[in-house]
Amino acid sequence: MSEFLRAFDLEITRRALLACLLIGFANGYVSAFVVLRKSALKIGTLSHGLLPGIALAVAVFGLFSWSVLAGAVLAAVFIGLGSLFVARTSRIDHDTALAVLYTAGFGGGLILISRLGIRQKLDEWLFGGLMGMSDGDLWLAFGISAAAILLLTALQRPILILLFEPNVAASLGIPVRLLNYLLFGVVILVLVSSLQAVGCILSVGLLVAPAATVYMFSDSAPVLFWGGGLIGALGSCVALVLSYELNWPAGSTITLLLGALFACAFVFSPHYGLFRRKVRS
User: Fold this and answer.
1) N or C terminus: which one in the chain shows less Cβ crowding within 10 Å?
2) What pTM, to 2 d.p., does this model score?
């Protein structure tokens, strides 16, 4: 802790800690929907598909926070909707279409970045650059996090009905298609908000692991949402401290710590843990 306490006198360290709280909580909260919808792998492909959009936006508009955000969002929407279009208009299933589009886009993004001569930014986009967040990045993360949490909390009941009983949701007059698109858009924005912190390669861990850990302990939806948020926030902050002490990359430490917490829950959960299942058997 001594190393971190000395570093805490620096503004960039305090900014990074605040970013961990904001981004970690928002991602942990939204991870409940990802886990309940069983769409973690699809979100993972979207996170990898952000790179070509970022590279293209930087090539057209220059390297700015807003251009990176806009490019990432457009790439995620294009790959998400494009894969759905391919699946509906051919014999190819959705997962296969996603795999083809995101790998092709990722390769194209790497080529474009090499042509632009900005390879020094590649590591940040791939694996995160938490300590390099500016005030503008922090305000952007705060805005996205606050909007996502407020919106999903307000619409939690119809979204839960949609996730568990889509036919019942339609019969109750819930706009199923619109709600699906809204949920997809919120997940994309939250995913993009964590891009600066953990990068497009590791961001899926922050968007899945918190709620997956809580899911090993509880069947309650509110506990899953708020518990995921708390684990995402506290886990990110603790990981930031560890990254200072161990001299590890912050983004990698965050996803590693969250993965370790899930592993402990998987083994030791009193209800659904590995040891508990062994005792019952």
Assistant:
1) C
2) 0.82
